[in-house]
From TrEMBL:
Family per similarity comment: Belongs to the GLMP family.
Protein purpose: Required to protect lysosomal transporter MFSD1 from lysosomal proteolysis and for MFSD1 lysosomal localization.
Compartments it resides in: Lysosome membrane
Residue ranges of the TM segments: 303-330
Protein name: Lysosomal protein NCU-G1
Signal peptide per UniProt: 1-24
Signal found in the keyword field: yes
Length: 346
């Protein structure tokens, strides 16, 4: 009896795999760096990927003095914002093929402080899978993986408890009176991101109502060292949304040129990193965070074969035992009081 139930699980698993591979259909992408610009230096990088639209940019980096050692930024924190306007961006690495579009940029804050590095990696892989690096976010043909690392940033000499935070501006063509949504989901297993069960999704109104808008998806986790593992992970805290306007001199301004700015939904939010007693930013001089940004419905994680087998065994055995108990009871019952109707039908 047990062996026949194993077969039915195998069928279920195969059906499940077929189902996911339907989502994982490869799509060729068409990416270009600095299209139409034949006089662009490596200092100006614009990646154009057909059918992809960015809906946010990092606008500023905040440095805050976390005197209470909470990890979070609050009104009482002394906040110093560093605009990224004067950052010099340099293209460090690129892969532009039909199967992947990846660029890695190094931003340096000041010409005379080339030690301070903001490393930004954008990676578009046009099929559904888990990213190779922790926190193993899911990428699809409709989303781009973004990794941001703040490396060796010089902290303010007036702050003794510095931490860095990222200020993101979110823009969509939804009504300006509407609001972005922060949806926190719990995943049933932490197989891909040990110890982290939450998934945070920032959805535009259209993404929430009709799965047509944009989204940002991430796990509430950051990393304090280049080698990402459980030991180097820290908490990423997300603020509420605040209404704002399009930042001047930004690609967003260019991107939304044809729109009436008063009709755009523009909100910002802050993501900060750390937990009490972790020694602040200066302990490692490193903070990294990853998210995916895309359009449509954010991808859902499926159960892997391993988890399915575990769940099947965990649930299957008690169900089988209960079932055999029921059968046994029924058999006993029937043996003692054979129903006359069944006998007549024989
Ligand atoms: C290319 O850029 C350089 C400096 O940015 C400028 O001096 C030169 O005129 C440009 N050439 C063309 C063909 O636009
Ligand atoms: C960097 O150079 C600018 C002027 O070029 C100067 O004002 C600033 O103080 C310098 N910063 C450091 C940290 O040396
Ligand atoms: C990507 O977007 C297209 C068009 O909105 C949709 O048909 C497709 O199912 C999406 N793919 C994934 C993997 O979300
Ligand atoms: C940051 O500083 C450390 C120690 O000075 C150095 O080993 C490391 O290479 C620096 N990182 C980068 C990306 O420059
Ligand atoms: C930082 O400075 C404040 C006073 O400005 C002091 O109360 C606090 O103990 C200092 N914190 C650390 C970690 O040195
Ligand atoms: C939201 O914006 C208001 C007005 O600009 C400002 O006073 C407030 O501190 C902002 N809140 C956050 C969480 O940034
Ligand atoms: C981090 O950088 C500061 C200088 O900005 C330095 O004093 C400190 O030793 C560095 N920490 C590590 C772990 O490299």
């Amino acid at each position: 009896m047990f062996s026949s139930s194993i077969i039915s699980y195998v069928i279920a698993i195969i059906a499940f795999l077929l189902h996911t591979s339907a989502y994982g259909q490869d799509r060729t992408i068409n990416a270009e760096i600095n299209p139409g610009c034949n006089n662009c230096s490596l200092e100006s990088t614009l990646v154009y990927i057909r059918a992809e639209g960015q809906t946010d940019t990092i606008h500023q980096i905040y440095e805050y003095n976390d005197l209470g050692d909470k990890g979070r930024m609050d009104e009482k924190s002394w906040i110093h914002s560093q605009s990224l306007k004067r950052v010099t961006w340099e293209l460090k690495e690129q892969i532009i093929t039909e199967k992947e579009a990846m660029v890695r940029l190094h931003g340096t804050m000041h010409h005379n402080r080339s030690r301070d590095i903001i490393d930004v990696k954008l990676d578009l892989l046009p099929y559904k899978d888990y990213a190779t690096e922790l926190p193993h976010l899911i990428h699809t043909a409709n989303s781009t993986l973004v990794d941001i690392s703040l490396v060796n940033l010089t902290t303010s000499r007036y702050y003794n408890s510095s931490r860095f935070a990222l200020h993101l501006v979110l823009v969509s063509t939804d009504p300006a009176t509407d609001t972005m949504h922060n949806v926190m989901r719990k995943s049933l297993d932490d197989e891909h991101t040990p110890g982290v069960f939450e998934i945070i999704e920032i959805k535009t109104p259209a993404s929430l109502s009709s799965e047509m808008g944009g989204f940002v998806q991430f796990r509430p986790v950051g990393y304090t060292q280049h080698e990402r593992n459980v030991g180097s992970s820290t908490i990423a805290h997300v603020s509420d949304f605040n209404r704002t306007s399009l930042p001047d001199w930004s690609t967003l301004k260019t991107f939304y040129k044809g729109f009436d700015e008063g009709n755009l939904l523009v909100q910002d939010m802050v993501v900060c990193f750390g937990e009490p007693g972790d020694g602040f930013y200066k302990r490692y001089n490193y903070t990294a965070w990853s998210y995916t940004i895309g359009y449509g419905a954010p991808p859902m994680e499926g159960f892997s074969l391993f988890v399915i087998v575990i769940i099947s065994v965990g649930l299957g055995v008690p169900v089988l035992l209960a079932l055999s108990g029921v059968l046994y009871a029924v058999r006993r019952k029937y043996r003692h009081n054979p129903p006359t109707r069944l006998i007549n039908e024989d």
